[in-house]
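Hey,

The postdoc asked me to send both predictions to you directly instead of through the lab channel. I've kept everything plain text so nothing gets mangled by the mail client. Protein one:
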Amino acid sequence: QVQLVESGGGLVQAGGSLRLSCAASGRIFIDVMAWYRQAPGKQRELVAVITNGGMTNYADSVKGRFTISRDNAKNTVYLQMNSLKPEDSAVYYCNIVARPTMSSSANEYWGQGTQVTVSS
């Protein structure tokens, strides 16, 4: 069974930085890794995504401030968040698309979420 363990959330002042990590356990082949976030009363939104080839894409609201990266040897994805704003406050969720073998169909997995709070 695949499990995602997130870490790195917390409270930070506006303009500060945080680094989120998400490690996937189990013997799996990961295609896409991503971070989503959900603020109170809002829908969950895609923040950043990275393919197994290293291609990235970001929400317009975080471009130039956030950087997604991955360590394939550790099955881990990171989100470096700089110049944080109060509107970045949300629960951040790790998401991966992975398969148990190269020929299996892919499944989607979610982390438990980690709270990021940015004070003004």
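Protein two:
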Amino acid sequence: QIQLVESGGGLVQPGGSLRLSCSASGALFDLYTVGWYRQTPGAQRELVAIIRQKTFETFYTPSVKDRFTVSRDDARKTVSLQMNNLKFEDTAVYYCTAGSWTRLPDYYGQGTQVTVSS
């Protein structure tokens, strides 16, 4: 069992930056692929970025590649998402996740709102 708590969401203008952080509690954080999903009203949750356990291999959805950076600190049990050059379409609730590299996540945080607006 693992619990995830996000922080760092908010309101930002287009072109701005935000950094999301997620703290985990529970055992075996370093054995999970962790990362971020997002969801807008009426839509399914979509993968944003994930980082694999042990290898730290990363995967990004194409729309955020070269703008977002996912990182993890296993000693602190944290995962972060640095978001640069934010666009209107990045507006969503962002969820910290933990699970497998090849499946949908097993665990989600409660979510944090990111709003990109002028």
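Summary for protein two, as requested: The radius of gyration is 13 Å.

Thanks,
C.
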